[in-house]
Write a structure and sequence with these properties.
With 276 residues, the chain is mainly alpha-helical. The chain is globular and about 50 Å long. The chain has one domain. The protein has helices spanning 2-23, 28-54, 61-84, 87-108, 116-134, 138-163, 167-189, 194-222, 228-235, 238-248, 255-274. The longest helix is centred in the last third of the chain and has 29 residues, at 194-222.
């Protein structure tokens, strides 16, 4: 359990970092597409080399394909959430509600068993999200909650896939799948802007791709060692980092409420973990 905890915390730092890069981008949809494309191409090449040197890794491809397809609504909705609202508002709602969705999926589908202490954590997380939501418009909140629903779905899908696969190989496969599906979608919606976006923002997209790839690989390794709700919750400690980043780096307002709400969400996550 200790190893899973360390892996999930490292993933939290990396996750907040690449989301901040996306929020700072001119076109968030293209930033997310470029990130997944670069990561997917790199992982595809990595899988080819891996197969040539040591044979094909054990990968549950059906789950990887489902997860990749789910990344289309994920990037569409996440870019919409960041377009509509502040980082310190949208990110904590997205990730806090996403952890709840992942934990619920773990209970209903993967037979994870929450304790009474875990349920106290759930109440705290909901309270923190509601405090944040009271200061925002439904226009912003609805976009953030929609993203959290996609997170809950692909978290459960990937937990299935990781438990049936070599975890690093599965992580690489799902990023190849995500690159394929998100590129197909972006070709229909922003075809004329794709190449120029890559040329202008290659360094930023590559940094975000590296951070997200490492972060999610750490999560997939962690869910082989601990319940999916535990890992999903601990990963969301990044909400506090996001609240501070929005205040200090993006000069967003209402920082006291947002930091306080993020801390409540974080405490709820810790309680959820303690009860796991």
């Amino acid at each position: 359990m200790l190893v899973a905890t360390v892996l999930a915390l490292c993933a939290a730092v990396l996750h907040a970092s690449w989301n901040l890069l996306v929020k700072q981008s001119e076109d968030r949809h293209l930033a997310l597409w470029g990130q997944f494309t670069i990561a997917g191409v790199a992982c595809g090449l990595g899988l080819i080399v891996w197969t040539a040197l040591d044979g094909a890794p054990d990968i549950a491809w059906p789950w990887a394909l489902i997860s990749g397809a789910m990344h289309v609504p994920y990037i569409v909705l996440l870019s919409r959430a960041y377009n509509r609202g502040d980082f310190s508002m949208s990110y904590p709602i997205v990730r806090g509600a996403g952890a709840l969705a992942g934990a619920l999926g773990g209970i209903l589908i993967l037979n994870d068993s929450p304790s009474a202490v875990s349920m106290v954590g759930v109440v705290l997380i909901i309270s923190g999200v509601l405090i944040l939501a009271r200061a925002g418009s439904w226009h912003v909140i609805s976009a953030a909650l929609a993203v959290s629903a996609t997170i809950g779905i692909y978290t459960v899908v990937d937990a299935h896939g990781a438990r049936e696969s070599q975890p690093i190989g599965y992580s690489m496969a799902l990023l190849v799948s995500a690159a394929f599906f998100t590129t197909t979608w972006t070709l229909f919606t922003k075809r004329g802007l794709m190449i120029s976006a890559l040329k202008r923002n290659a360094r930023t997209m590559s940094g975000a791709a590296l951070a997200s790839t490492i972060a999610y690989t750490l999560v997939l390794i962690a869910v082989r060692r601990a319940p999916v709700g535990y890992v999903a919750a601990l990963r969301e400690s990044s909400v506090v980092l996001a609240a501070f980043a929005g205040w200090k780096m993006l000069d967003e307002g209402d920082h006291r409420r947002r930091i306080a709400s993020a801390i409540i969400v974080f405490v709820g996550l810790v309680v959820l973990v303690a009860g796991g």
